[in-house]
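Session log. Operator J.P. requested a structure for one protein chain; no other inputs attached. Running the standard single-chain path with token output.
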Amino acid sequence: MNKQTITVDFDDTLQTVFSELSDNRVEFFRLLAQVSTVYIVTARHAEHVGEIRQFLKEQNIQVCGIISDCRSKVNACKSLNSLAHFDDSERHCKELTENGVNCYYMGEFHSETMKQVWKRSKVEQGVWKYYVLDNNTRGLSE
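Structure written below.
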């Protein structure tokens, strides 16, 4: 039997800053990878893919590949015939859904409290500017 393909964003989707969600999230995607063909589809540049591979190895998550530098995920998901995509970007989810790809938005970003915690972590990591550039601030002030 052929496995269905599932695509997953990495930052703030598979890997999350919320410790109360992290273990369950990893377990969920680990189980999905056992019954599906899973690809990571990320906007991360190719030079940072090693960090993704290290995370996957540490968490024992088997994927079929990593597609990096992916600004518009529609083409990648359609070319992989993705049954479903998981992402933290409202813009990507909207674009994917409007183009016929089932997309699931990460629920923690519906919580104002969790969004504030998330923003603080991105500021501390020095990467908040990239979320601002990508217009992915989840309605939080710059």
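Operator note: The chain is about 45% helix and 15% strand.
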